[in-house]
Amino acid sequence: MANILIPTDFSDNAWNAVEYAVNFFKKSTCNFYVLHVCHGPNTKASFNEHETCKKQIELLINRIYKQLPNNKKHKFFSVIDAGYLVSSVRKQVEQNQIDFIVMGTRGNSGAKNTPIGSNASNVITKVRCATIVVPENAKYAQLTEIAFPTDFLSVYSPKTLEAITAIIESNKASARVLHIKNDTTVLNEDQKRNKELLDAYLGTNEHSFHFLSNNHIENQVQDFVEKRQINLITMLAKNLSYFEKILFHPKMPKIKYYTDIPFLVLH
After folding, report:
1. What is the CATH number of the domain that holds 211?
2. Pair 25, 114 in one domain
3. What domain count does the chain have?
4. CA separation for the pair 238, 235 (Å, rounded)
5. In this structure, are residues 152 and 194 in contact, taking their beta carbons and an 8 Å threshold?
6. How far is CA 36 from the centre of its chain?
7. Which contacts (CB < 8 Å, 24+ apart) does range 9-13 have?
8. Which domain holds residue 95?
9. pTM for this structure?
10. What InterPro entries does this protein map onto (predicted)?
11. Helix (H, G, I), strand (E, B), or coil: what is residue 237?
């Protein structure tokens, strides 16, 4: 049984994340917790807002049952909370033993000049839970090629390795480990050891290592995504040098992966 949390602000991007989550976990027995956070203190005005939110989330749950494939393995629960999104998400992760968070890159008020809005940014950097971030143009397709950009500087925890291999094995997908470096840079002993650990853990699963030289990480990721027809990018939140450049740089016209390809962020 997997427990999935889907924060929503009822935007089109949030609905796209719902669709993606239902399809991504179509083979799994899941409880989906659909969360909407109403802002504001406990005043009469916020009570009225709460009632409005309650009606909206009921409509959303009804829409899920009407418009998305009927899957007997899936159950949906609505959750309304008041306060701040990150605090509410943390609470749900603990209370409902959440395995994955799935959310859109931005909501109704998201800034358009960055790949990821503030809500998604705060969740993936401040909540220690595996999170799938779904861009506005992303549509679910059977996972065949998964990219894993890494600097090999972080020691991979068993939980992280298990999450990666579980997704690879359940989808019979291939893992493409991508390391981008300067022309003169070589792996140090710690990086070599971490690479060997990753290689051993991926084991007999189809995987390969790719070493590319370029100062512009986002350009290399874009080229790699296109050539390999990648349909999921997996990253470690603590790989900050990659993480920030791939997800948090200003939008560039030639870079399309952050509007089309979902990200799985692991902690």
Report:
1. 3.40.50.620
2. yes
3. 2
4. 9
5. yes
6. 18
7. 9/36, 9/107, 9/108, 9/119, 10/36, 10/56, 10/60, 10/108, 11/104, 11/106, 11/107, 11/108, 12/136, 13/104, 13/105, 13/106, 13/107, 13/110, 13/134, 13/135, 13/136
8. 2-134
9. 0.91
10. Universal_stress_UspA, UspA
11. coil
